Amino acid sequence: MGGCGIAILATFIVGDDLKCGRLQMVLPEWTIPETDISAILAAGSHIPFKIQVFVDFFANRFRGVPYWDAN
To answer: Comparing C-alpha atoms, which of 36, 19, 14 is closest to residue 71?
Structure first.
């Protein structure tokens, strides 16, 4: 927007602008490599309930197609 050129931006940032036509995707066949997010917890220690709930929420929320890309 505003003639600033080409950028690699996450769809959760520009999704609305893409959907309404303010921005357009170029090179749609090219994507950046996917990366994993890991939760590392100490072995054998008690996991606080709040942490377990957060990890479960995060895992479910970001499994598959991100919610901001879903139609």
So the answer is: 19
